[in-house]
Amino acid sequence: MGVTKRIMTDLVFSSWGGQVVDNRGLDPQAFEPAPLVHLPEFFKPDEKIKAFVGWDGIILRSADVDVVDLVKTYLEAVHGVSKDCNKCNYCTTGYAEMLDVLKDVYNGEASDEDLEFFENSGKAVIESSKCTIGKAGPIPALHLAKYFLNELKQKNQGEAVGSPGAYLSKVTAPCMDACPIHLDVPKYVEAIKNAKFDDALAVIRERLPLPGIVGRVCYHPCEQNCRRANADQPIAIRSLKRFAADQAVAKNQPTEFQVTPSVKTGKVAVIGTGPAGLTCAFHLALKAHQVTLFEKQPLNGGMLALGIPDYRLPSPVREGEIKTITDLGVELRSGVNIGSELTIGQLRAEGFQAFFLSIGAHECKNLGIEGEDLEGVYPGADFLRDVKLGKKIDPGKRVAVIGGGNVAIDAVRTAKRLGAENAFILYRRGREMPAHSEEVADCVAEGIEIRILVNPKRIIGENGKVKAVECLEMELGEQDASGRRRPVAVEGSEFILEVDGVIPALGQESDWACLGPDCQCTLTDWGTVRVNPYTFQTDDPDIFAGGDAVNGPRSVIEAAANGKKAAQSIDRFLNGLPVEADQEDYFDDLFRVIPVYDPQEEVRVPDKLERKTVSKLSPEIRKYSFEEVEQGYSTKEAVTEAERCLRCYRVVTLSV
Q1: CA angle 283, 316, 213 (to 5 degrees)
Q2: CATH topology of domain 178-362+510-584+594-656
Q3: Options 3.20.20.80, 3.10.290.10, 1.20.1440.230, 3.40.50.720; which CATH number does 13-165 get?
Q4: What mean pLDDT comes out for the span 342-354?
């Protein structure tokens, strides 16, 4: 079901991207190609795309498309979005006026002056509007008036201009599309701008039950696809999400959710309480399924609890958001090891009808070098987990953390806070580390050294304890499969670093002891469970999986998105409906080919407005404390930041 890019040579017409290709009336063999267009042939495997209209123009693959009807359907969708805002008067009235003209066209009552008014209304919307729904929304209508005037007149005279199709419309935005769980970012940012903080939180919680958590630890791909960045700086979307969540906590108000029972409800076991499991349980509970969360550890939250230090994610935030889920009637059973104490077969016998595996990736990968068994070697995820569980740990005065991911950064900053006088990173590649750039910057600000192009060769011990680590200098060679230059050891460059603690943090993998002989699930070559990438159903029909168990160590928001999608699939499974990809999945595929965000787009704004910086504890204070580093926005700061949003909704309509 994937889609690929290719130069289009089968288009009847395209005005996409400002490049007009008009092949109407030509023999298909003489069709001019459309280099700027990469429209897949199929939307669904059995559904061909006949036409596509959106923010950048009109694309026709079939000459039989009723382009007037198609654009009318599109304008109806755009008008619906514009009414939700109602800030720019002519944006709302202008779309209504254009639709009124098309109504007259269908009734055979439109004059030439009406058709001219139709075009002028579109231009007026663009000129008077402040946000993208007005700046880009009328473009297909203007192209209709310019390139399909004859079709408009034919329709007005009662003549057929093509066959009406089955239409699919979708509202998105660059930030929404980039967000794995597709939060309606413009809507909740707009609510914050209008000081409607409860409304903002309600929008977020339509999809995500963990706004305070994600508002702190998300790597915010939404901000990397924010059109405001093309003018000055991206909107601080993550910080605004946190602000909305913190407002509710500050008011200590109970959280209310609308539960809508599914036609058939069932009994579901969610194994693991990380972000995927919590989100899955939340959405199943909203459909009145009987959900039990099983957690192996005494702390709930998976890697949220055991892998993210309190200076990034305070425990009360995590505990509070888990409580909002259990308050929906979700049962929580902690300290239960599925696989050894209780099997999936036994749970089936207890009446559980479906399962969601969200066991995370807690098992540390080995360095594969001499000395890993010495006292003073603490695998990264184990080190962070033991600290969170309250175990007394002395990492030593000189601590080498090996790796360049988020676990490595968290481990070295934690070691510093536990009293290490010199905690530093050894990373075998260059400065382009996989850890989030903000975490790396905070690490450096705390005086922690990151030594790049260094790789450990062996750990040296004395009397069974770590004494030093022998390293090799590296240099970057040819590109590997990932596109990064492969690190190559410099011959004869060995050197010794005296340390009394080593924390390897090269990645984690899942422990699949929970899958006994009563399970038919299979694993991939990467050691993750094999699932349908759209439904998250495993090879065992009643078992679904998501999060790090499927993706390997990734982000909180990706895991949450998996959980939401799996909940939808489980609900369908329990109701005896086909478990299959849905329309949102197919639009996701489509937008990978026709991107919603163009990083090269020139975005003009009336005024350059600086992004509001979130205050942080001073490095000199925080490096000795587990107190939260980021302090969050004040009300004034949040509203001011939200005012920078360009409300970049994009509407598309397909004819299939």
Answers
A1: 45
A2: FAD/NAD(P)-binding domain (3.50.50)
A3: 1.20.1440.230
A4: 96
CA 429 to chain CA centroid, nearest Å:
27
Helix (H) or strand (E) segment spanning residue 655: strand 650-655
- 611-616: long-range pairs with CB below 8 Å, 24+: 611/232, 611/233, 611/234, 611/235, 611/236, 611/641, 611/644, 612/236, 612/637, 612/638, 612/640, 612/641, 614/236, 614/239, 616/442
CA distance linking residue 230 with residue 86, whole number of Å? 25
pLDDT tens-place string over residues 28-67 = 999 999 988 999 999 999 999 999 999 999 999 999 999 9
Task: Return d(Cα 116, Cα 523) in angstroms, integer.
Answer: 62
* Residue 2 reports pLDDT greater than 60: no
What is the per-residue pLDDT across 58-73, written as a single tens digit (0 to 9) for each?
A: 999 999 999 999 999 9
398-402 vs 501-504, strand pairing mode = parallel
Whole-number Cα distances in Å, 396 to 45, 120, 375: 58, 73, 11
Q: What is d(CA 177, CA 168) in angstroms, rounded to the nearest whole number? A: 17
Question: Which amino acid belongs to residue 65?
Answer: V
Rounded-to-integer distance, Cα 462 and Cα 468, Å: 9
Q: Which fold does the domain 365-507 belong to in CATH?
A: FAD/NAD(P)-binding domain (3.50.50)
Tell me, yes or no, if the pTM score tops 0.85.
Answer: yes
Reply yes or no on whether the pLDDT at 482 is more than 60. Answer: yes
Percent of the chain predicted with pLDDT > 70 = 99
The domain spans of the chain are 13-165, 178-362+510-584+594-656, 365-507
